[in-house]
Design a protein that fits this description.
- The protein is mainly alpha-helical and 519 residues long.
- Helix content is 70%, strand content 7%.
- It contains 14 helices and eight strands.
- The strands form three sheets. The protein has a three-stranded antiparallel sheet with strand order 1-3-2, with helices on one face.
- A hairpin with a 4-residue loop joins strand 6 and strand 7.
- The longest helix has 146 residues.
- It is flat.
- The chain starts with a helix and ends in a 9-residue tail after the last strand.
- About 3% of the residues have low confidence.
């Protein structure tokens, strides 16, 4: 039973397998047929699309061709048009050139005809000129025969006569013009000078050679004098000013020809009295501080002066020298006040004459700058001032005006005579100058310069109105024996080289100092 069942199962299985293969084969054939039909359809669609795409590309190519052809035809038409226009212009130019050639040929022919005519006329003129010259020579020979003179002699006499007559008339006319010009110039110059002077207010006060230092009480005099006079000697040695302590109540007189020294001494005394500590070391310290303060004050005075006068761009060194003029005098007249007055006069006069008033005012302020040099030189103050102005970049007109205001340099600019005239106006007014004072100051300066010329001299001060010369020497360079010799030599040189009233006492001071610092 089991075998039969197994056989039946095997047969069934074989039948199933055969049936399965049949069914699979049938399905596979169907799929193949479907695929072939689908492929044929895709192929047909592709051919259709290719035909359509081909037609579209052909249409696009045809349109592009038509467009390009149209553009090409347009370009060809434009080029033909331009060529035609160019040909027209060329033909027009050819016609114009032909016309000009014809006109030129015609003109050449006319010129040739005119030239022939002119040649014939020139020949006629030459013939007539020859005949005229012959007649003129014959006429001159007749005149020479009648007058008894040749033509050259007659011409010379006539020219000489006319020359003398013209010269006489010219001299008369020249003199008349000169007299008229002088009259008008003098009148106009007086008018300008008077107007300039009237518009400038000048100070009449003249500084002298002493300064009065007022005290609160006479007890302070003893402190200033110090034990055995050491304080007053220290002040005199440090400042170069002579202190006169007399019976004048509550006052000490500071005497010196140099206003700058007097001012340093006055301010130093004022500080010492206010501080109350008066001894040699303190005196030297205060004097040195005051000297530096005066330098700052000098700069401030110079800056204020140039600002008040409206002068700009002045070099700082020139500004300092302007401030320094406040402490100098010229023939008893304060140098800064004199220079300011000259500057104002120059500005007004230049404006009246239609010149540059600022430039003239600048030259007027600086014209005496050579009187306040830092170092003494042999040059005159006018030439030294011109040299300083040129050194610090001043205008050539200003330099020339400074150097020429005493005729030591040739005047090359118009403002030079204006500065000279205004300087004379300021110095010549009543009360402006005192010749005796200037001579005294010059003698005092020469006295100090004489002592400073010796080797080893550190400072030299003329005090007691020039009756005493105090010479301070360097202890390292001058011995005690040399001090006696130096005093004698200076006194002998003063006697032989200088002129002075009375007598002059020469005092040589040699001081040895040992300084150490305890820390």
């Amino acid at each position: 039973m089991d075998a039969l069942t197994y056989i039946i199962g095997g047969v069934s299985l074989a039948v199933g397998i055969v049936a399965g293969k049949f069914i699979f084969a049938k399905n596979t054939q169907k799929q193949i047929d479907d695929a072939e039909s689908q492929a044929k359809k895709i192929l047909a669609d592709a051919q259709t699309n290719a035909e359509n795409l081909k037609k579209e590309r052909l249409l696009e190519a045809k349109e592009k061709f038509v467009q390009l052809k149209a553009e090409h035809d347009k370009d060809v038409l434009e080029r033909n048009k331009k060529i035609n226009e160019a040909e027209g212009r060329i033909r027009q130019k050819e016609q114009t050139i032909n016309q000009k050639v014809e006109q030129t040929e015609k003109q050449i022919k006319e010129n040739d005809a005119i030239k022939d005519n002119l040649n014939r006329q020139i020949e006629v003129v030459n013939l007539k000129r020859t005949e005229l010259e012959k007649h003129q020579e014959e006429h001159i020979r007749r005149l020479e025969k009648i007058a008894g003179l040749t033509a050259e002699e007659a011409k010379s006499q006539l020219v000489e006569s006319l020359k003398q007559e013209a010269h006489t008339q010219a001299l008369a006319l020249q003199q008349e013009i000169i007299d008229d010009a002088k009259q008008k110039a003098n009148k106009e110059a007086r008018k300008i000078i008077i107007q300039s002077i009237q518009r400038t207010a000048a100070e009449q006060a003249i500084e002298n050679s002493i300064t009065v230092f007022n005290l609160e009480s006479d007890e302070i005099k003893g402190q200033i004098i110090g034990r055995e006079g050491r304080n007053i000697r220290a002040i005199e040695a440090a400042t170069g000013v002579d202190l006169i302590v007399d019976d004048t109540p509550e006052a000490i007189i500071l005497s010196s020809f140099d206003p700058l020294r007097r001012e340093i001494a006055r301010l130093s005394l004022q500080r010492l009295v206010a501080d109350g500590r008066i001894h040699p070391a303190r005196i030297e310290e205060v004097v040195e501080k005051t000297r530096r303060q005066i330098e700052e004050q000098v700069m401030e005075i110079g800056e204020r002066t140039v600002i008040e006068l409206g002068i700009h761009g002045l070099h700082k060194e020139l500004v300092r020298l302007v401030g320094k003029m406040r402490f100098r005098s010229s023939y008893g007249q304060n140098l800064l006040m004199h220079s300011r007055e000259v500057a104002n006069l120059c500005g007004i006069m230049a404006a009246e004459l239609g010149l540059n008033p600022k430039l003239a005012k600048r030259a007027g302020l600086l014209h005496d700058i050579g009187k306040v040099p830092d170092e003494e030189t042999e040059l005159s103050h006018a030439l030294l001032g011109a040299k300083l102005a040129e050194k610090y970049g001043e205008n050539p007109a200003v330099v020339n005006a400074i150097g020429a205001h005493h005729d030591e340099m040739e005047m090359a600019y118009v403002i030079a005579p204006i500065v000279q005239a205004c300087d004379a106006i300021s110095g010549a007014r009543p009360g402006a100058r005192r010749e005796i004072m200037q001579q005294y100051l010059q003698r005092i300066k020469e006295l100090e310069a004489l002592a400073m010329a010796y080797q080893g001299v550190e400072k030299a001060y003329a005090i007691q109105a020039g009756r005493e010369l105090r010479v301070i020497v360097e202890a390292e360079k001058v011995s005690d024996a040399d001090s006696d010799k130096l005093s004698f030599e200076i006194a002998q040189k003063i006697m032989t080289e200088m002129t002075y009233p009375g007598q002059i006492k020469v005092t040589v001071i040699r001081e040895k100092r040992a300084v150490n610092v305890a820390r």
